[in-house]
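Hi L.,

You mentioned the student needs an example of a multi-chain input paired with its predicted structure. This one should do, with 895 residues in total across all chains.
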Amino acid sequence: MQTSFTPEFIQTADGERVNKILRKCVHCGFCNATCPTYQLTGNELDGPRGRIYLIKNFFEDNNANASKEIASKHLDRCLTCLACETTCPSGVQYGELIDIGRKHINTSLERPVLSKIKRKLILNIFSSSKRTSMLLAITRICKPFLPTTLASKIPAKINLPRHSSSQNEPHTTFTRKMFTIKGCVQNAAAPQINLATKKALESSGIQLDEINSPCCGALAHHLTELEHAHSTIRKNIDYWHQMLTSEYNNLLINSSGCSSFIKQYITVMQDDNDYAEKAKFISERCIDLSELANELTVNTSLDKNKTIAFHSPCTLQHGQQINGKIEEKLKQAGYSLVKVIDSHLCCGSAGTYSLLETDMSSKLLKDKVTNLQQYQPDIIATANIGCLMHLQSATKIPVKHWIELIA
Amino acid sequence: MPEPISTPDLANQFCKVVPKDAVLTRDEQLMPYECDALTAYRQLPRLALLPSSIEEIKAIVKICNEYQIPIVARGAGTSLSGGALPHKDGILLNLAKLSQILEIDTQNRTATVQPGVRNLAISEAAEPYGLYYAPDPSSQIACTIGGNIAENSGGVHCLKYGLTLHNILALKILTIEGEVLELGGKNLDSPGYDLLALMIGSEGMLGITLEVTVKLLPHPHDKKVMLAAFDDIQRAGDAVNGIISNGVIPAGLEMLDQLTIQATEMYCNPGYPSNAAAILICELDGFDEELETQVELVKEILNEHQAIEVRVAKDKQEAELLWLGRKASFPALGNLTPDYYCMDGTIPRKHLAHVLESISNLSKKHGLRVANVFHAGDGNLHPVILYDANISGELEIAEKLGGEILELCVTVGGTITGEHGVGVEKLNQMCVQFSEAEISTFHAIKAAFDEHELLNPGKAIPTLHRCAELGAMHVHQGKLPHPDLPRF
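Structure written out for the whole complex:
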C-alpha cells in the first residue's frame, strides 16, 4: 500500500515500523472475512483493513485532531484476537501495528472520566491475585442480590483437594526443571489449574515450581497503560532472568493469554536498551503448556468416556500459531471431540475486552456458546483462564482447562 | 431535475429510514471506503450507508431516485478493477450486513442467499449435504456473491465448472425505480429474453442485487493434482493446448513463469523445480477409472511436449503442497516488491507463447518486472506488474504497461477481461475492444434500466466522447497525452 509519511515520522522507531508494516498490506480485504467484529457490524471501520486505514490516516495527517475520537472508538473495538494475521496472505503484522496505533492515538485522547475510572479499577484489581480474590469473595456473598447477567459472571469457589489423588507414581528423578507463575486472575478464580499442571508435569518427568509473580503485564498493556506494563515487565524480567540463568530450563505458562504476551516481550521491550536483550531471552524460553502436550502422561483414573468441545483461545491459535496439539492429546487420551463451527472466531473475552466492550463481547459470546454446544458435549475445554470464565458465564456445561482432563 | 440537496440534509433523510449509526457522514469514517482492492483509484463518497434489510435498501434507493443521487453498491470491497470505487456525488451502499443464507435446497441442489454472503460461506453452509458452490475466485474467503455477480467472477476451477454466469439460477434485482425484478428460477431455462444473463457481469449498473439462487454441485469423487515443468515456455503453452484438444477438461490448469516459481519457492517452499522456465499445475477430477485414464493421458501429452519433469501428487498433503505455491503466488510476488498491479486479460490459447514473449518485451521496454501466474486452461492471463507506488511516476508506468498488455490481448483476438470486470481500470481498453456502435448499444441497455445514470455511473462502459478522444490519440501506441486529465 502506498504511504505518504513525513520523513521525520519515518525516522522515528515507530514510524519506521508503521511504514514497513503498511507497505506489506495490499488492501485485499481477506482479513475482514475472519474478523469477529466485522462479522457483527459489516462496517469496514470494524475490520482490520479499516483500522489499518484509520492508523495510516492518523500518522499521515498532521491535523488529525478531528479523527482521534472515531479512530480510538474503532481501535478500542478491536479484540486483538489476531485472526486477521492468520488469514492475511501478505504477512501484515497487524498486532504490532495496532499496538503502535493505540499507543499514539489512545494516549493522546482524553477519555471521559467514568471510562478512566473503570479502566483504572480493572487494572488495579485484576492485576493482583489478592485483590481479585477479595472481589470474588465479596461478589460471591452478594450473588443472590445481583442481576443474573452479572451473577453468571462470578466463578464458583473451588475447594482444592488436600492430597493428590493421582494413581500415577510421580517421578523421583526429573529430566528438566521449569517454573511457572502464580499469576493474577487464574490464581484467584481457578487455582486448581496450576495444581493440575504441576501434577501432569511431575508425573511426566518435569519438575515444576511455582513462583510468586503477580502478573505478566498483559492487562496493563491491553489497557494501553504502557508505563505500568513496562514496569511490571521489567520486574518480571529481572526475576525470571535470574531463574532461567541458574537452574531452570524454561518458564512454563498454562494460560495462553499470558504465554502469548510473554512471547511478545521481545517486541514490547525492543526500544528499552537495558532490557531488550533480556526480554528476547525470556520470550524465547517461555513455553505454553500445549507445546508439551505430547510428552505428558495421562492420568489413567479419569473417566474418558466423555465428549468434548474444544475452544482454542485466540492467543493460542492466532497469537502463537499453535494448532491441534491439545486436540490431539485429548483424543489420544481417549476423549471424543465434537466439531466446532467457526472455531477460528474469538469468544469475546479478549483480556479486558469483555469488561469494556460489553455489547460486542456478549454478542460474540452468544455465538460462540451456540457453536460449542451444537453437538451437546459433556465438557467444554479451553486453554486460557479468560476464555474459561467468560464461556462458563453463558453455559451450564462445565468449562475446564484441558490439563484438568489429563492430570 | 430536482433541487440539489445538501449532504447534511441528505444524511437526515437517510436517518429516517435506517438507524443513525448506519449512516456514515464524517471524512474519517468514509476514508476506509475510498477504494476497493485496486488502491490506485480513490474517491470519497458523500455518504456511506450500511443497511441491514431489504426494506432499508428499498427506502434508500427511493430517496436516491427522488433526489437523483448516484449509488455505488459494495460487497466486501475486494474488486481488482475498481468496480466499487465511490462516486463523488453519490452514496456508497454497503451490502455486507445482508449476509444470511436463506435456504439450502438439497432436492434441487440450490442455495438462496442474500447479496452480502461470502462466496466461501455458501460452500461451508452446503458442506453438511456434500455440496458446494463451484466458482472460486482467489478472494473467495472474503468476496461476496453480490460482488461476484457484478463482476462475473471466475476462479481456478472455472475451466471445468464455469464462471459465476454458469452457476446462477435466479436473481432478485431492485431497479432504480424501486421495482423488484425476479429473474430466472430453479429451472435451467426461462421464457423471454435472458435478462438473468444480462445482469451477471453488469457491474452494478442495471440494478441492485437483493437475493441470489446459486447452483450447488456434489463434491467430485476424487482428485489428482499433477505438476509438469518445462525449460521452455512455448512448450508449456503447447502442452496446455495438447491437453485440451485431446478432450481432457481439467478442473484447473494453471501456469507459473520463472519469476513466479522463484518467488513462491522463496516464500513458502512448495518444492517447485527452480530451474524450470514454466510449470503447469493440473488438477483432474472424476471417478476412479475415468480419473486414472485421464492421468495417464495427460502424462503422455506432457511428455510428448518434452516436459523436463512430471509429478503426480501421491496423497492429499502432496496435492495441497502443489497448490500451495500457486495460491501463495501473489503474496510471494508481494515479497519481491512493495506494490504490484495484477492485470486480467484473455487470449486464444494458441497464442500463449507469443503473448508471453511480447509481455516480456513490454516489460523490458518500460523497465518494470512482470510475473505471470494464470489460468492457462482458459487463456485467462494475470500478468503481475511489480512496482513501487512510493516512487513518483512508477504507478503511471505500471498502468501504461498494463494497458499495453491488454491491447496486446485484443490484437491477438482476445479480450480485456477474464474475470475481474472492467470497473474504472479498463475503460480505455473498452474503446479498443468495441466499436462506437457496440458501445452505443451498451449505453442504450443501461438507459433502458437506469435512464438517469444513477447506478454505479461511469463504470464498465466508456462514454463515446472518451473513446473518440482516445482514438484520435492512438492509445494502442501506449502514449497518452495528458494522462492526468480525468477521463470518465
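You could point out the following to them. Strands of chain A lie at 176-181, 206-211, 250-253, 286-288, 307-310, 336-337, 379-382, 399-401. The mean pLDDT of chain A is 90.

Best wishes,
N.
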